[in-house]
Amino acid sequence: MIELDDIQYRFARGPVALRGVSARVQPGEKIVLLGANGTGKSTLLRILDGLLFPSRGRYTFRGQRITRAALRKRAFARRFRREVAYLFQNPDAMLFNPTVREEIAFGLQQVGADGVDRRVEQWANELDIAAQLGRAPFELSGGEKQKVCLAALLALEPQLLLLDEPTAQLDPRSTGWLIDFLQDLPTTTIVTTHNLSLAAELGARVWILSEDHALIHDGPLQEALADHDLLLRANLVHRHRHRHGDEVHRHYHVHDWD
To answer: pLDDT tens, 23-43?
Structure first.
């Protein structure tokens, strides 16, 4: 489904955000993208969504290289926008319609989908927000807003779902619901987080970005979580002293900042 070959991204007159990232993704995979703050996780998702374009290297989605020129072609852009969906970290950045119903319908209308009303009802029921369809999105709780954003994306029936720190603004109950929902979803997913306690619930394969913006690990997630040296190098765990009475020990601790 995805081929990334030597992807580099540098901000205009600024620092490198990604350095030489290469990877392949097969349909149906669930990948967790780990990295400390500022390592380039969101930048990589935006490249995968065609919002940013590599300064160097090639990104190919289902055999088509994704470039500015390719996305200027209306037919291809419509198909790509249906097949690749990106959930922003902050749901407020995605909500702008007067009602939840119009919010879910908006993307479907933009790509000329059939059966808009049917799909809106289907996904509102699937995500348990049917009772909110007539409400304004800004009136909803953080968890409800996240559900509205997900319904709007999933109504497009995407091939690839990109989620940027999806639990960052959720309470524990909403976090549990989202994890259960994503585990049952057959769609290919790539989820960013720096919360190691949740990572193992979100996928089986992990990409780890280092603080110099390189992909330093691509493999089974459980193996990576057991490799303290790797996690320490990626600044995903730290070591500090604990005092137990007169004895002092050094322990690893994870950075669960969500």
So the answer is: 999 999 999 999 998 999 999
